Give the backbone structure.
Amino acid sequence: MELYKTNQLKIYNSLSKSKELFVPIVEGNVGMYVCGPTVYSNVHLGNVRTFMSFDLIFRYLKHLGYKVRYVRNITDAGHLENDADVGEDRIAKKARLEQIEPMEVVQRYTVDFHNILQKINNLPPSIEPTATGHIVEQIEIIKDILNKGLAYEINGSVYFDVLKYNETEHYGILSGRNIEDSIHNTRELDGQSDKKNPQDFALWKKAEPQHIMRWPSPWSDGFPGWHLECTAMSTKYLGETFDIHGGGMDLKFPHHECEIAQSQVKNKVKPVNYWLHANMLILNGMKMAKSTGNYILPDEIFTGDNKILPKAFSPSATRFFMLQAHYRSILDFTSAGIEASEKGYLKLMEAVNSLSKIEASKASSIDINSWKQKCYDALNDDFNSPILIANLFEAVKYVNLLIDKKETLTADDLQNFKITINAFVFDVLGLKNDMQEDSSDKLSGVVELLITMRKEARDNKDWALSDKIRDELAVLGIQLKDGKEGTTFSVN
């Protein structure tokens, strides 16, 4: 029986501002959309934390037995630097500064994004659509909103009429903002003169002559507004109403608010049942910003090539550090914090590696099922990874007591214990065992040294030593194979 049938998962819904029992639209199936990156620069650590948070959610839903369609977009059309629809296209600006094609910028930073998430051991989404691949769908949505009288065209640009929408719906339902307060606090900005109201947002922008990225439309050669792509792609792949929509806390307003408004007009139904938002990552108590120099890139952590940390930290240690905070809480990245996390991570891996040393007994002195239920209770409470990790450290104590024979487990309980630890550590938290990888690297180094010694023996016609090295390795399950390119080995 699927685990979701025996586990009551509760999720904090930003829409209701409360924890709700998770009930998918279709039993056993989950549709989840997460706003992906705008690929105009290296992915920063705050972005990584957001995507890691939803990777944990994706992993746990799969662990519970749900069939999950996880859609995460790539914004490769760029969008304007300012949420008020003014400024320069971020990708085009980068292309101009580096004197390369915009799609070279897109390719470079999409590859970087994938490389970093692979290092941190995030699972790939089910579908990863691009904004440029869905221009036609976005144009069709604009036509529909125009036909329904909730948008207007001026000088080749199309804007969503927020005030008219708010006459029958609630613009601000997600963020809790009041449209009247917004009107009172909004000042007119240069470049907004063609809007009816400052609150209105762009569905389509007419491209200026110097604008590189442009597409033909019924209104002008231009490009879609930033908010539109997510509405187009989420509904295309997940339906008019789907289960989960996620993103960073900074996207709640205006991005997700605009998505709700667009979808509500287009489809006449609530677009999403559960809105989830991951909180921000700060560095040494301050907001990360390249302008102030208070930032660090993931690869700079992994290589140690930075001025903030005393040494390099592995992707797994970095992942473990982030998972020790709840996804909805602000996390402060500090040298002391990640050093402490690395010690905890290594302690956990040492316990995992010691599981094989535990011997079964005739009776159990530990209630494994009770401990196991606490692990599920933690994640069923809005994916509470810090509480899960605390329960895993309780398991570390059990491992040491079992090895010292101060506690006992039957064969069945021991098997249950091992399976549960491995499931939560590797499948759900997505950690890798660096200690095992280190051992593998050391083994490779020793074998390569013996291969070099064997080659020297053969060069010196010392066939006895050459054969001895080969035969002794074979006894240990390491087979040498001589070829034109040299000697390789495999472990049986």
The domain at 3-278 is CATH 3.40.50.620 (Rossmann fold). Residues 434-459 form the longest helix (26 residues). The chain has three domains: 3-278, 282-428, 441-491.
